[in-house]
Amino acid sequence: MLRKVTLLAAALLLVGGPAMAAAKAHEPEPVAFSFEGPFGRFNQVQLQRGYKVYREVCSSCHSMTLLAFRNLGDPSGPFFDPEYSAEKGLTSNDNPVVKALAADTQIPDLDGETGDPITRPGIPADRFPSPFPNIIAAKASNGGIAPPDLSLMAKAREGGPEYIASLLQGYGPPEHGVTLAPGQHYNKYFPGGVIGMAPPLAVDKVSFDDGTKSTVKQQAEDVAAFLMWAAEPKMEERKKMGFSVLIFLVLFSGMLYASYRRVWKNESH
Amino acid sequence: MSGHSTYQPSNGFAKWLDARLPVGRLVWDSFVDYPTPRNLNYWWTFGGILSLCLGVQIVTGIVLAMHYTPSAAAAFTSVEHIMRDVNYGWLLRYMHANGASMFFIAVYIHMLRGLYYGSYKAPREVLWILGCVIYGLMMATAFMGYVLPWGQMSFHGAVVITNLLGAFPIVGDAITTLLWGGFAVDEPTLKRFFSLHYLLPFMIAGVVVLHVWALHVVGQNNPTGVDPKSKADTLPFTPYATVKDGFAMSVFLILFAVFLFYMPNALGHADNYIPADPLVTPSHIVPEWYFLPFYAILRAVPEKLIGVLAMFGSIVCIFALPWLDTSKVKSMRYRPQARLYFFIFLVVCVILGFCGAKLPDDQVIPGLTTFVLVDSDLNSFVWLSRVATLYYFAYFLVVMPLLGLLEKPLPTPETISSPVLGGEHKD
Amino acid sequence: MAHTAVDATNPAAGDDPSRRDFIHIAAITAAAGGGLAAVWPFVAQMNPAADTLALASVEYDLTKIEPAQQVTINWRGKPLFIRNRTPEQIAAAVKDDGAALRDPQTDAERHKEGKAQWLVLVGSCTHLGCVPTVGGGEYGGWFCPCHGSHYDTSGRIRKGPAPTNLVVPDYAFLSDTKVKIG
User: Fold this and answer.
1) A258 closest CB neighbour out of C12, C23, C55
2) What is the CATH number of the domain that holds A221?
3) Which chains touch A (3 or more CB pairs under 8 A)?
4) Which domain holds residue A229?
5) Each residue of A135-152: pLDDT tens digit?
6) Contact C45 B81 (CB under 8 A)
């Protein structure tokens, strides 16, 4: 709250002030995501597209170690199917789409008899496989800086999904005075402007199964929505429960107030 | 607890128990028949709200400890395990994290109420000091609890705060090494912080018992600051205070629920969703909001040791308050000048919190470069926090002692009920 | 509690004709209901977490088990026996179908149809949960070393303190050589 107040006050102070120094990163562009607001929900089709962008583009460098394939079929997840829910006595493990997505990947494991390292097709209980076997390999392949894990990215950056969506579209020629070393790129939304990640998205780089036009903006916003879901998979449950709790508390407070007035009605105070 | 007990066992068993272990009598005398001043306003409901906060933190904490792993390798993922896999884990963890903030909101209101109405003055000095001890324990508990998720802010917050103690000459390094159990914040530090984070709330609960005991010995202060003189001045705790406290708690829970369900990360920091990395410090390291004023005081002083002393000194001032205030009149309702300084103090605390969240060299008014004074531009948060720090200490060390001697307070009422029944001074 | 206290301590309440004031009862009921609802998450969190449930079923390739051999695998934190029975062991089990059994079951009820060779059992003694040793005891099935329960080659209790047969878990043959347990 205090941070919000601070931001607000800073914004007010800014009104009369001159332009910010060039080194400051641009504020992310606002995006009207479906999950915003007290009743906002994830758009399942968008999450499916976002997963495809992650799987086909991001996952070649970025891990998502906190996510398991089964999560994709959890309630409010991209491939949730009410046929495979707790109400039917089943779980997302039984969801055939989830099984197929898991089986599409190769999971490093140990051979049960020889103990040799092997890879096998994934099962829903498996976590998303990482592109690099360890952090040293991740650093070595990426100019000394490991690509961050994306599991919590939408909560781990100021601006959240809007920042991600802006960043993915924010590449361009360097602004005045910024010099780039080989392997560096200019991105106006990235703090400092110099980023190691090459522009990851391009028109039609990912073909969407639902026929949505595959623009860079579309891909960026879809993957940002997917990452928000990945970071906060219980958001819909949370808001839903919050609504009931608030209704209860407001009614309860009203009753207590009436009770309080009743008790005190003959006492001046 | 004070005075004659009116408890009458209602049945044979109650009579039998009362002769052996009079818990029924204790509860009756403390929470039913206990006389409370009839003019208590809503600022007095925060004691009850604080007990609720402590209860919520202890219960959610015990449950979270069933799933949390206190190890540098697993702490971060075990918290995410709670958030993703444990049944209602997200609810319990957000309750605990936001509950800490709610606890501090309530405790600050409770303390400021005490400050405004002079609740620390004789005979309530011990009551006040016990409250300060609780506040100190709360800060220690909250700090160690914030380390447990082992995110970037957890880790580097722990580094910064433990390094503070290194400022003390001669013993400083030995103390930090002892605290860390190594040469940096690491596995042993996390494990001991977890152990202590589990222990301290129960110590808080113990001191709360003493705090309530002391309260019931001296009785509650009230908005007039005039002690009750007859039965006409008081009402029994139940139902009058119980129902009012209950209503206030319920309203407070609405605030809690709004944060918990709709903005659970608004009071936290994004960087704490990045796993701890000892090799990279977040570009802008700030403590949780409830420590920001003290953090600003720390940074206001350019010399490390004096900064640390100033920070601890700012808390010591609160302890010493009963002896710093020389006024004979308790409530600031009758001290117009004191009231003015109090509200300035309130604003200064908010300014200090504001400064604590900013980088010291950031400009207060953007784009305006004035002139360098000593070490920084005058238009910087470090100078704003210096001015605010100066007022903070002056309030306790100059205003409080002198004002009591110099001011001319308004006449105070003879009894609580005289202004109450007369209908004056309603605020 | 509060409404009785109103009557007891507030003389003015005597003016009120309804001694048990509705609003107090309603408020107390709501408090109790809300309190009870709030307890549920604190209880439910002790149930198995989603990742625990996700690993609760395992698949096993039976070609790894030689005749007369048993493998023990970990299933939901408990031992699971998969035994490749010889024709003699099956015959011995079928022969005792009519014997006086404590927990009467035929051998055919304890394996999948046409798969008499494969016996899949939870490896916990039904007495107090120790792990029985394979091939021991008077009936050549299993013997529990803790308190001396004897099981036959169908995993049925024959002698000793255990009350019931070794439990057959839910499982299915995915193919001739692959089972899925759970």
Assistant:
1) C23
2) 1.10.760.10
3) B, C
4) 29-233
5) 999 999 998 889 999 999
6) no
